[in-house]
Amino acid sequence: MIARGKTNWLRFMPTVSKMLAVVLTAVSVLTVSPGAGYADPAVPEITSATAEVSSNNAAVTVTFNTYAQPAGSLSDLMDGIQIERSGSEQWVDLAADSAGNDISMNGEGALVITLGTALTGTDNSIQIAAGAVMNTEERLSANVLTLSSIAAHDITAPVVTGSRSNDGSWLRVFFDEDFSLNVPDGATGEQAAAFLKSRLSIAGDGEHFVPFTNNEGSAYQNNARELYLNYNNNMKIISGLNTVIRIASGTLKDAAGNLNAEMNLHVSPPIIQSVAVSNANHDVVVTFNKEVLNNTSSDDNLKSNIYLVRTVSGQEKSLKALVAQDTVSIESNKLSIHFAEALSGTESQISINGGALTDLNGNVQEQRTISGFLETAVGGVDPNPADTTMPAYLYSSVSDDYQNITFVFNEEIFNAKGSDSKFLEDVQWYDPYRNQWLYTLPSDVTFTFSGTKLILHFPEPLTGYQYYYQINPGHFMDAAGNVLTGYAATNWIYPQNPAAGVSYKGGYFSGDGRFLSLSFNTNNALTNQTLVDGVSHLNEYITISTDHGVTYSALDPLDTVSLYGSQISIIFYNAKQQGSVKVKVAPGVLSDLYDSKRNSAVEATVAYNTPELTGYFYSNTESELAFTDNVAWREHVGKVTVYDRNIGQYRTLNASEYVLSEGKLTLARGIFTAGTRYTVTVDAEGYSSKYLEGGAYKSSEVFYMTAPVVTADNGITATIRLFNNAYAEEVNGNQTILFELFDGNAPVSIVAANLKLSTGTYSANFNVSDVVVNPNYSVKAYVVSRYGNDPANLGLNLATVKTPLELDLAILAANKNNNND
């Protein structure tokens, strides 16, 4: 190899000897004459060169400042060439760089370097050793020639580098270079958004694609390298574990004019499938549905994003950060955690901050996720510190100049996120100028922790119509390291309150498809301006679409339309089976009391027509949630999520933890802990998410009842008092109450009623003629989870029998707890 910056004179000795002979001859005769060996001073030496990259980046042509030729063989010349590729910061011999590399000299005296591996990037360099080339007068290049900043041509379209989502509600897709939408010059933002929507389709199951435009939502270029997508009406962009976003070819264009080919983006983030404990409660393995990678800067950073969730007492739960002696590691789809102190108890879980992990496609879940319960062996050491009480959020206030918002807590607080930039993330706020919810505070918002207060400072006063700020769990901790698992949120902030016309506010579509209500933005009753001789013609100004707005039709003459207060209510004669409908209301048909303001035109999608779920959450057995079967909805269900309301965290159930069958969703045992409040969410593509909220109970503790009191008036009448212990204000489940008449030990008759049971008195009458002469009659009562064609299969016993006094005491205790809440 030729040393950089020096001439390898030995290699080129024949040429040097020839030149030396010429010089000696000239000296001996003291004259110089043209002829062999003459060096024409008009021919410049080789002192510089330029590089030109071929259109496919597979060749570089080096043009010297004068005609050049190899000093030796081409093989010798190749030995004197090195390359430093963009981003490598290391020189490599050209022959060693790629097996396909080769060189040649063209007819213009330029060096052509053919590359087996094409160039990339903008900072490539080529170095040619001194003495490796010579001019036509055979004078060798005296110095190393270095050609820097050789840029490859951009010949590739934008490539996706990953995505971020928040339980599938919205999606941000990131690319490796700046791009623009391939729309004509001068296209408006509205036209660009419509173009992008028309080029997108989504498959919740990864196979069956639905056009984005089938549902209302937003799709736009969020910045130079990002697309943002979301659906309205609480529909999920990511509705399953294998969601694919398809971007049609020719949608995106980079600065070089490269257009994308059709792109199928697998955007579902990794989901926890199981959790296992071993090594005498010291080791925990969290298994995901796909391979995961550390998305933080180091193992220590990853460790700071993982918590042990424990039940401290009753319903109170705490987050415990990993300590210095704990370790974490990732291998394939498994996250392994070693606890220096052994775990204990049966109600512990692993919590992982949003953004901590990514899959191989770069998909990141922004929200926190939580595992199932750890099944620890008996024994172990409680790892909780003595102080397990987390700080409590009290209230917020806004400065008179609307430039500061102060959040006040009950004790001194600190930043639990570790950095200022992380603290600004996962803060949900409403931007009135964009008319949308955002999930990260702007980088120019500053904040100060001062004792028990957090002060958010805005560079300019808030001047929009309305604002709302919600700082999500995991942002605040006290001096002992206890992390706040709840929210810190303001009320709505109104820097100004301009007068507004009568405009559409929102709608509701019932679970059985019979009721539709449209609300308007006024607290006062509206006036129907379609009355003619006291008869309303409001139904004539309303049209409905059940095909996503492709066609609209008038209401059925048998549909009932009424105006109640500030909302229109429609009762459909024939129930609608779709998950959503589009509705239009003509302008000017409603007004305020004095007809000073009339409504603007309404064109909106109203969703939420999902089956109603009924049932309870059981801690000791599987939980059955019933619904009126809707085959279309059931076939589109992509995932079921459980939200622990005590700590504000989600976990997505894996396929072994639930079964969806005709009219029934069965959740496996072990998902719920008694005394904890939960929300179960069922997501189906094309449908609004369905929620069921409630506390978890032992099955026999859902109701309390007294033993039947039997009287002999007009046959036999049995009466019980019943108390719904599963929060008296909620009646979630369909249950059956049974009264069974016995003659001695022989059953005689059963009276059963399938009801939504609440607290109250229930009775049944048995028509028997010999009650006066037969003293052997008795009645037993039960509350069971099912009663059908098989009397032997009554499901679960849902009630515990108590004395009248015990029942009264239970009701008083429940009322006291509810009043305290």
From TrEMBL:
One Pfam family of this chain: Shr-like_HID
Keywords assigned: Signal
Signal peptide: 1-39
Source species, domain of life: Bacteria
Domain named Heme-binding protein Shr-like Hb-interacting: residues: 619-690
Keyword flag Signal: yes
Name of the protein: Heme-binding protein Shr-like Hb-interacting domain-containing protein
